[in-house]
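Supplementary Methods, section 5.1.

A reviewer requested that the exact input to the structure prediction be made available. We therefore reproduce it here, unchanged from the version used in the analyses.
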Amino acid sequence: MPELQRAADTLGLTKYKRHIFLCADQTEPKCAPKEAGLQAWEYLKRRLKELNLVGPEPLVYRTKANCLRVCLQGPIAVVYPEAVWYHSCTPPVLERIIQEHLINGRIVQDFVLAQNRVNFP
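The structure derived from this sequence is encoded token-by-token as follows.
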């Protein structure tokens, strides 16, 4: 268990403010061409690093998902803890999500496809 705790500490799993999942590199691309998903993923990774939002004291944690099961108007992303689902996550849309939602906490209504209004303790 100490090794697992070290891994969690190294990744800053208890410190980030938001977590974005992005549908990219699908086994069977349906919502967007595989190339579009990979381009969006590389853009997201690069921008979060450029803006110093990742690292040992991360503000944003990112996860590449094989499929988020929406399968329309992708790439699809979901941001927690607000549980906001976004469609059409091309690099320009991701830039808005990064600047407006991930950094400033304002949901980008133009690209919301759903929001799960869960109650967190």
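The longest strand covers residues 18-23. These observations are discussed further in the main text.
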